[in-house]
Each structure stands twice: as structure tokens, then as C-alpha cells.
From TrEMBL:
Coiled coil: none annotated. Keywords: Activator. Residues 11-57 form the Cyclic nucleotide-binding domain. InterPro entries: cNMP-bd_dom, cNMP-bd_dom_sf, RmlC-like_jellyroll. This is Cyclic nucleotide-binding protein. It comes from Pontibacillus salipaludis. It comes from the Bacteria.
Amino acid sequence: MKDVLIQYMKRFCHLSEAELKELTVGIPVAAFKKGTILLHQGDVPEKCYFIVKGCVRQYAVDEHGNEHTYNFFTEEQSVTIFNQHTSDKSSKYSLSCLEDCTLVVGDLATEQESYDMHPVLEEMTRKMMEVDMGAMRDDFSSFVSSTPEERYHHLMANKPGLIDRVPQYQLASYLGIKPETLSRIKKRSSHHLRMID
């Protein structure tokens, strides 16, 4: 199961496969059932995750009881809630498994100890975070300046399989539109593709 993690780590360091295997020996991999809440909104995050298999949703419930989806994480993505800038360190988001998931589980409390034992791990993590943060920044800029239809096409280009993996109302929430608007956009897109064929 850790082969996926090792292949991912290879992108961010020059360690051999044997060295990476040794580095991941103590890293726990756990299975979570569909519907498992990994983090509740308002709790202080204690874990971070790397997705070997499955899909995790990041969402929040507002003061009116409405759910808002902020992100979907799938294979080869890390899932961490950054909230060290907040006074009480509590999370504004919940994390939920949308499918049965296999996740590498990191302990935020012992993160520094791991870095002290394996300095290369800290450098690797920093590079991974830079890539993740850069992608999130690009996605956010694109989201703000685009129409709902453009957002949908951007999603299809970057995560084509997601549309069949998550409930449509959550996908609509993520795109910032109503489910019926998403249905219309999908219909127009499939009609356009048929015209091209």
C-alpha cells in the first residue's frame, strides 16, 4: 500500500527506493469506511493525511445550517488543515470520507520529532506543501475570475473522474452553483461534445 506514497515522495527527493522504504517503515496506513468523519468542524486538528486510495471532502456548515463544500481530495493528495494562525487552533472545516479510504496518517504532535530523526523528511514535506499551496492558489484565482461553466470545465480538465465519484449537490456546492444549474451545464457540455463528434 505504501508504494503509492513512495512513488509520490520520489518526486520531491533524490533518495533511492530502498531509502524511501526505510523512511516509511514507521508511517501508519489505515483504512476508513465511507462516511467516516476524520475531523469535525470546531475541533483542533491532531492528524494529517495522505490519500493512497479514496476521496475526502472538506466542508463547513454555516450559522444557518447550510453545508458548503470547499474541496475534494483524491489519490496522491495530502490533506492538512492549516489553522496555526487562529487563536484557539480550532478547525473551520470538517473532513469526511466520501468513499472507503486508505490513508497514510500523520500525527501533528510528533511531526517535529519525525523531522529531527529524518531531516530529509522536513525538506520533502516543505516541497510538497509548496506544490499543494501553489495549486490551491491557482485554483482559487481561477475560481474567482471564472463563470460557473468555466469552473465546471476546469474541474473536468483537472479532475475528470471526480464527477462520477461525488454526489452532484456537493459538486454543485464546490462550484458555487445550485444543483439544477450544474445539471444544465452538464447537459450543454454533453450536447456540445456530441456536436463535435
